[in-house]
Design goal:
- This protein is 35% helix and 18% strand.
- By secondary structure, the chain is α/β, with parallel strands linked by helices.
- It has 2 domains: 20-50 and 317-407, Alpha-Beta Complex (Aspartate Aminotransferase, domain 1); 53-312, Type I PLP-dependent aspartate aminotransferase-like (Major domain) (Aspartate Aminotransferase, domain 2, 3-Layer(aba) Sandwich), CATH 3.40.640.
- A 7-stranded mixed sheet has the order 4-12-11-10-7-5-6, sandwiched between helices. The chain has a 4-stranded mixed sheet with strand order 1-2-3-15. A 3-stranded antiparallel sheet has the order 13-14-16.
- Helix 4 (102-119) packs across helix 9 and helix 6 (172-183) packs parallel to helix 7.
- The protein starts with 19 loop residues before the first strand and ends with a helix.
- The structure holds pyridoxal-5'-phosphate.
Length: 411
C-alpha cells in the first residue's frame, strides 16, 4: 500500500488511483491513459495545463530568485503582481496580501475584518455567511462554511456565525434576513461566494441579490468579503463574479486560477480603509499574519504571466465561446428524466442526477466518477450534482466527450 494519504479520498473503499505522468492543455496523461480534465483539477486550471507562458516565467525565475523572507524584504515579482492585481480588481481594492491557498486567503480576510473593527475601537465581531457555502478546510474557514459530514468531528473547535438562507429567486428572504441581522449592530462582515456556491453543489444566484447584499452592507457599515477563489479569473464569464453585479467588495480573496493552476499562490486584496486601520505608529496594530512561503517569487512570476495573458489575449471572446458551447450541451439534456435543475454561470455548467437520495454521500457520485473515468473523462460529482468546469482552451470535441460521459450514464 502507498504511504500517501489522499485528500477527500476513502482509502477503505476506493481503488488505487491512476498515476499522473504529465499534463498538457485540457488533458492529464496517466499510467492508464489520457484523462480529459473536465473539472480543471479542482477548478485551478484556467488557460490549460502547463500553459507555455506561465511555465516559461517559472523557468526564468527559478535558479535566479527562489524563496526569500517577505517580512522586511520585497522583490519585483511580488511588486509587479500586486500592481497588476490592483489594476484588474474591482475599484477600491488597493492593497494586496499574499498567502498560499484559498483557505489561507480567506483566513487572512477574516483576520483583516476583525482587526479593522478592533483598531477602529468598535466591538463588532459577528460574521454572516450564506448557507451551503464553502470557504476551505482550516478551522476558521470551516467555521464560516456549511456544517455537515465533512466537519462534524471538528465542531467543538469552530466558532459561531450567523447564517443566511441561500438566495432563491429574487433573494428576498436572504436580503430580509441580512437586513435584520445587520441592523442589530454587531455585524463585522459578510463573507460570500459571489454568484456560485461551488462545493455546496454549484448553486447559483442572481447578480441583483449580490448587489442587494452590498447595499445592505453599505447601509449598516458591514464589510463585504468576496471569496472569488473559485469564481475568479473568468469562470463566470467575467474576470470576477462581482463584475456581473457591478459591485466592489471591501476584501477579495483569490487563489486557484491566480497562477493559471500551475503552482500554488493566493492573494487577499483590501480597501484603503482596512489597510489604514492597521498602519500606525502603534506596533500592536501590525497585521500579525504570515506563512513561510508568503509571496514566493516563482509563484508570483507564474501569476504575473497568467495576468499578462488576461491583458494581452482576447479572453472575453474565449470565455464567451466556451459559455455558448456549454449552454448548447446542457440544453441537449433538457427533457431527459434522468437529469434535473440544469444551470449555468458563464463557463460553469451543472445538472443534478435524479436519485432517491441526494446529499454529499449519495452513492451515485462515486458511480458516476468511475463511469466517466472509464470513458477517459475526469469528473467529480458533488453528491448527485455533476458539473463540467473545463480549462478555457478545451475543444468542442473535448466537451462532447465530457458531456457524452454524462449522457451515457445509467442513473
Ligand atoms: C470558494 C472557495 N474558497 C476557498 C477554497 C479553499 O481553497 P484551497 O483548497 O486552495 O484552500 C475553495 C476550494 O475549493 C473554494 O472553492
Amino acid at each position: 500500500m502507498s504511504a500517501v494519504w489522499h485528500p477527500f479520498f476513502q482509502h477503505g473503499t476506493e481503488p488505487a488511483p491512476p498515476r499522473a505522468l504529465s499534463s498538457e492543455g485540457a488533458f492529464i496523461h496517466t499510467d492508464r491513459g489520457p484523462l480529459l480534465d473536465a473539472i480543471s483539477s479542482w477548478w485551478v486550471v484556467t488557460h490549460g495545463h502547463n500553459q507555455p507562458e506561465i511555465v516559461e516565467a517559472i523557468r526564468r525565475t527559478a535558479g535566479h530568485l527562489d524563496q526569500v523572507i517577505f517580512a522586511g524584504l520585497t522583490h519585483d515579482p511580488a511588486e509587479e503582481l500586486a500592481e497588476a492585481l490592483v489594476q484588474l480588481a474591482p475599484a477600491g481594492l488597493e492593497h494586496v496580501f499574499f498567502s498560499d491557498s484559498g483557505s489561507t486567503a480567506v483566513e487572512v480576510a477574516l483576520k483583516m475584518a476583525l482587526g479593522y473593527w478592533r483598531h477602529e475601537g468598535d466591538g463588532r465581531h459577528r460574521i454572516a455567511v450564506i448557507e451551503d457555502s464553502y470557504h476551505g478546510d482550516t478551522i476558521g474557514t470551516m467555521s464560516v462554511g456549511e456544517r455537515g459530514v465533512f466537519n462534524a468531528a471538528y465542531d467543538p473547535l469552530m466558532f459561531a456565525v450567523d447564517r443566511l438562507p441561500f438566495p432563491e429567486g429574487d433573494g428576498a428572504a436572504t436580503l430580509a434576513a441580512f437586513e435584520a441581522l445587520a441592523a442589530g449592530g454587531q455585524m463585522a462582515a459578510l463573507i460570500l461566494e459571489p454568484l456560485v456556491l461551488g462545493a455546496g453543489g454549484m448553486r447559483m444566484y442572481a447578480p441583483a441579490v449580490l448587489a442587494g447584499l452590498r447595499a445592505i452592507c453599505d447601509r449598516h457599515d458591514v464589510l463585504l468579503i468576496a471569496d472569488e477563489v473559485m469564481t475568479g479569473w473568468g469562470r463566470t464569464g467575467r474576470l470576477w463574479a462581482c463584475d456581473h453585479a457591478g459591485i466592489a467588495p471591501d476584501i477579495l480573496c483569490t487563489s486557484k486560477g491566480l497562477t493559471g493552476g500551475v503552482v500554488p499562490l493566493a492573494a487577499t486584496l483590501a480597501s484603503a480603509r482596512i489597510f489604514e486601520a492597521h498602519r500606525s505608529a502603534d506596533r500592536r496594530r501590525t497585521f500579525f499574519h504570515s506563512s513561510s512561503y508568503t509571496a514566493n517569487p516563482i509563484a508570483c512570476a507564474a501569476a504575473l504571466a497568467q495576468v499578462r495573458l488576461w491583458q494581452a489575449s482576447p479572453m472575453q471572446d474565449r470565455l464567451h465561446r466556451l459559455t455558448l458551447l456549454q449552454a448548447a450541451r446542457l440544453a441537449a439534456l433538457a427533457g431527459d428524466s434522468r437529469f434535473a435543475a440544469p444551470r449555468q454561470c458563464g463557463t460553469i455548467a451543472a445538472i443534478d442526477l435524479v436519485v432517491p437520495e441526494g446529499g454529499y454521500l449519495a452513492e451515485v457520485g462515486p458511480r458516476m466518477r468511475a463511469h466517466s473515468m472509464q470513458q477517459g473523462v475526469l469528473l467529480r460529482p458533488l453528491g448527485n450534482t455533476v458539473y463540467v468546469l473545463p480549462p478555457y482552451g478545451v475543444t468542442e470535441a473535448d466537451l462532447d466527450m465530457a458531456w457524452g460521459a454524462i449522457a451515457s450514464f445509467q442513473v
